[in-house]
Design goal:
mainly beta; globular; six-stranded antiparallel β-sheet
């Protein structure tokens, strides 16, 4: 039996659409860097659409220079924090090169935090023992069955890879263009704001 050409054409069109969708969602594998959008307002840096979609590579960020660092430099101190799907890492600990760390503060309003904690910083000591627990309700997000939502009033205080500076950071969205969380919205695109202390103290400007 000869296949109906209309059905065959429809099947090919669907295949192309599905293929195009997944190509658009994935980070490029041609050596180019993941993308992110940066803007500043006073001392606050806003990051939007940071692509953390890779299955096996973290998107590494230097908080001081507001730049994405190549994965080939993962064993250096050029980056401070990294993102892959819902997992966040810092450049400090037994499996890292830097002197970074992180404190997770709960019931903490971002704007009300004026000083980084003096102690309590956790580090990445093993793939299953990270500074920030990569589980719903225990890290930065809650998983509601189909959607991922940042936990209200959770502020992450990050010590930079050089061990001398601190940033307070608040995750705002996990969806591209900060879309309303839904089963159809494109995920693994972080939006967050942070403020970096650069004067040698723990006081945020």
């Amino acid at each position: 039996m000869t296949a109906n050409p209309k059905i065959k054409s429809y099947a090919v069109s669907v295949l192309i659409c599905v293929s195009s969708f997944f190509t658009a969602c994935r980070q490029p594998n041609d050596g180019s860097l993941p993308t992110a959008e940066f803007s500043t307002s006073g001392a606050v840096v806003s990051v939007k659409n940071l692509n953390a979609d890779s299955e096996d590579r973290f998107t590494l960020l230097n908080l001081q220079t507001q730049t994405i660092i190549p994965n080939s430099d993962s064993a250096t101190t050029k980056w401070d924090i990294g993102f892959r799907k819902t997992t966040i890492i810092v450049n400090g600990g037994k499996i890292r090169t830097g002197q970074g760390g992180m404190v997770r503060l709960t019931n903490q309003k971002y704007d009300a935090l004026t000083e980084a904690p003096a102690s309590g910083y956790r580090t990445d000591d093993a793939e299953d023992n990270l500074a920030l627990t990569a589980k719903s309700g225990e890290g930065w997000y809650s998983y509601g069955g189909t959607t991922i939502t940042p936990i209200k009033d959770v502020v992450l205080v990050v010590r930079t890879a050089d061990g001398t500076k601190y940033a307070k950071l608040e995750i705002q969205s996990y969806y591209k263009d900060m879309a309303t969380p839904s089963i159809t919205a494109q995920t693994r695109y972080y939006a967050f704001r942070y403020q970096l202390q650069t004067n040698g103290t723990r006081i945020f400007p």
